[in-house]
Write a structure and sequence with these properties.
480 residues; alpha/beta; five-stranded parallel β-sheet; three-stranded antiparallel β-sheet; 14 helices
Length: 480
């Protein structure tokens, strides 16, 4: 590998000044770095330090431009040593050498700020720059947040009654759901985790469709083969939820690559919790997306808890946003309880991802007010006062309502009537879903192979015989 000396003075002067031509040739033949000697001590030369300024998006993600072979670049001289600085034209871009052994700091000492539009009382912060949403969009966003809130409450209670097997709420994260969905196009492909039903709700998934999936009846698009809340809809470009954590992330990068190949005017959006960023899939996905330069938005709902593990026990870094820079991905931290901040961030991220064909990472700071799922009791590891504070003082639904109502677009009467109507619709949907016939057991063996292999044929036959022999051990409402 050739080392190229910068050209701030002549080559002959540089070689003759203190080092000597033979010494240089000797050191280069040994493959060692050039150095100077002062007071009998060998010293590595100093190089300039780089500083970055904060912007709405941090970490440009641009590839470093490599200089042409043989081209010489002038570098700033050191205050301590007037020898010329040196650089190597390494694949990926020119890298300067330094005489100081400086380890990169583990922390900048200052946390990356969080983008916000509305204060705790629902008033726009003075000087905030954001794209205003009109009455129609704002009311639809707010009504969707309320609908999601009511749906979570009633279906959670339905599980507690033993009518469905499992449920998981989005309480406290309603703004991320509806605001991000409003900022997207229906053509954008969504790969959710499991706390984003509001995105489907925005795209037109009905309360009846939600109920059908949770009850796993014959009208369920998953044919009863998924756990409750594992929604999916090809019609709405919404991939089916998968339980394993973070598997959707590298898949999202791959889907985005296909959109890029087909030159689609759309992007991929995928969601994860803070716990998902501790999985290897997260790192593989970000690196793949950055290297292939694909239009994908990674949205992390940093709600402070990965089930019972607090973020302080997950990572030492400044949250998730700083990880984007390590992979060359433009990133932003946003107040996840501020619907307008989320809307504006996702809208800008979408434009950037599509127009510049690049990935974007969004860390939305929020809080999971509810238990992780119906299998969890969060009061065992979180203080009740902490939960109550986020439920009241930092409630995203209440904050957005104050802003919408302050604009004269919503009233107390509208609130009462709307909530009553949604409760009625949902109760009717649940009753209908519960009465609807279950999918046949034969569905357990379909949709994997075009023609079932012998082992599956034998398993299906054996199961049928077992059910006939022991009918009392199997649900009577499930047809063979």
């Amino acid at each position: 590998m050739a080392f190229w000396l910068s050209k701030s003075r002549s080559i002959s002067s540089l070689l003759g000044k203190r080092i000597g031509l033979l010494t240089i040739l000797h050191e280069r033949n040994k493959g060692s770095f050039l150095h100077s000697r002062r007071d009998g001590v060998f010293r590595y030369k100093n190089s300039p330090e780089f500083s970055t300024k904060s912007a709405t998006f941090s970490a440009t993600g641009q590839r470093f431009k490599s200089s042409k072979t043989g081209e010489q670049v002038e570098l700033p001289s050191s205050d301590e040593d007037d020898d010329e600085n040196q650089a190597v034209d390494f694949p990926g871009g020119r890298v300067a050498f330094t005489s100081r052994m400086n380890f990169t700091s583990e922390s900048s000492g200052k946390r990356i700020p969080c983008f916000r539009v509305l204060d705790d009382n629902g008033y726009p912060i003075a000087g905030s720059i954001f794209e205003q949403v009109n009455k129609e969009v704002a009311v639809r966003m707010y009504s969707g947040m309320v609908t999601l809130q009511i749906m979570d409450t009633i279906l959670y209670e339905t599980q507690r009654q033993g009518r469905i097997s499992f449920y998981l709420t989005s309480t406290g994260e309603e703004a991320i759901n509806l605001a991000s969905a409003a900022a997207l196009s229906p053509d954008d492909v969504v790969l959710p985790q499991y706390r984003e039903p509001g995105v489907l709700l925005w795209r037109g998934f009905t309360l009846q469709e939600f109920a059908n999936q949770c009850f796993g009846n014959k009208a369920d698009y998953g044919k009863g083969r998924q756990m409750p809340i594992h929604y999916g809809s090809q019609k709405h470009n919404y991939f089916t939820v998968s339980s394993p954590i973070a598997t959707q992330l590298p898949q999202a990068a791959g889907v985005a690559y296909s959109l890029k190949m087909d030159k689609k005017d759309a992007c991929v959006v995928t969601y994860m919790g803070d716990g998902g960023t501790s999985e290897g899939d997260f790192h593989a996905a970000l690196n793949f997306a950055a290297v292939t330069e694909v239009p994908v938005i990674f949205i992390c709902r940093n709600n402070g808890w990965a089930i019972s593990t607090p973020i302080t026990e997950q990572f030492r870094s400044d949250g998730v946003v700083v990880r984007g820079q390590a992979y060359g991905i433009r990133s932003i931290r946003v107040d996840g309880n501020d619907a307008l901040a989320v809307y504006n961030s996702v809208r800008t991220a979408r434009q950037t991802a599509i127009n510049e064909q690049r990935p974007i990472l969004i860390e939305a700071l929020t809080y999971r007010v509810g238990h992780h799922s119906t299998s969890d009791d969060s009061t065992k590891y979180r203080a009740v006062d902490e939960i109550e504070h986020w439920k009241t003082a930092q409630n995203p639904v209440s904050r957005f309502r104050k802003w919408v109502q302050g604009n004269g677009w919503w009233t107390d009467e509208d609130e009462s009537e709307f909530r009553s109507n949604i409760r009625k619709q949902l109760m009717e949907a649940i009753q209908l879903a519960a009465r609807k016939e279950k999918p046949p057991i034969a569905n357990l063996f379909t949709d994997v192979y075009e023609e079932n292999p012998p082992n599956l044929v034998e398993q299906e036959r054996s199961l049928g015989e077992t059910i006939k022999k022991h009918p009392q051990d199997y649900p009577s409402d499930v047809p063979l």
